[in-house]
Amino acid sequence: MLKGKVAIVTGGTRGIGLAIVKTYLENGAKVAIAGSRQETVDKALSELSEYKNSIMGICPNLCSPEEVDKAFASVKEKFGSLDILVNNAGISSRTSIYDYTLDEFTKIMDLNVKGVFVCAQSAAKIMKEQGGGVIINASSMVSIYGQPSGCGYPTSKFAVNGLTKSLARELAKDNIRVNAVAPGVTNTDMVAALPKELVNKISEEIPLGRVGEPTDVANAYLYLASDLASYVTGEVLQVDGAARA
Ligand code: NAD
């Protein structure tokens, strides 16, 4: 579904990001993994050594336009184009408003919002010049319902939806589609570390009766990146088993 395409996946070293990287590789794309540390990028690259001619690693500070421009240009130089950007990197917290420090709030907004803005801007410049592309942002179920603690995280994901819908309208004329994926509870390291009884309880409250797997979410990223979604832009696609947290 992505033969001949080149993608960058931020936070592609583990969790949902790594599942997106694998899914894109399996579907014929060349992929650059953007991580925060060289050692985690190297670990992911070694796990995917069977695709060694189709992957590369980059490590820019996602909030630095200069570093991101340089890293994205290196991907275009190595693989010949930049067709898909997945803004997957994100952090969360469940701190109560009474304990929330400004530093913690700023840290979340920086990566989850400023990082998406910087990377989208950098990729859009390349995509416009080459005649089009696709940008997909990581939103969340909490961007629709909020959450009862840790207000910075849902705030950042509401902002991601705003960026997604606005950029979709602004960049449509340049043939760049912009969408978001809003997962529910997904079985990454964080969920795997929870006691089994708690995961069972969470699952019972989800109409589809289970938490999502990273591949469930990665398949939504595959659809939105592919030509099957050629007339879909400005959409926030919920992948949450109809959970209403
Ligand atoms: P994770 O914590 O397992 O992985 C996050 C990734 O982001 C890692 O690869 C990490 O290295 C990277 N990252 C963190 N800080 C970074 C930085 N400063 N620069 C570059 N990369 C950085 O997360 P996940 O659960 O796989 O979630 C991925 C995305 O999906 C996030 O945006 C998250 O908000 C969203 N999401 C996750 C869930 C869930 O249940 N797991 C639900 C809804 C939305």
Explain this structure.
This protein is an alpha/beta fold and 245 residues long. It is 47% helix and 15% strand. It has nine helices and seven strands; from the N terminus they run E-H-E-H-E-H-E-H-E-H-H-E-H-H-H-E. The protein has helices spanning 15-26, 38-47, 65-79, 102-130, 142-145, 152-171, 189-192, 196-204, 214-225; strands at residues 6-10, 30-34, 55-58, 84-87, 133-138, 176-183, 236-239. It has a seven-stranded parallel β-sheet with strand order 3-2-1-4-5-6-7, with helices on both faces. Helix 1 packs across helix 9, helix 3 packs parallel to helix 4 (102-130) and helix 4 packs parallel to helix 6. The longest helix has 29 residues, at 102-130. It is globular. The model has no long low-confidence stretch (mean pLDDT 96). Bound molecules: nicotinamide-adenine-dinucleotide (NAD). Nicotinamide-adenine-dinucleotide binds next to helix 1. Residues 10-11, 13-17, 35-36, 40, 62, 88-92, 111, 138, 140, 183, 185-186, 188-189 line the site of nicotinamide-adenine-dinucleotide.
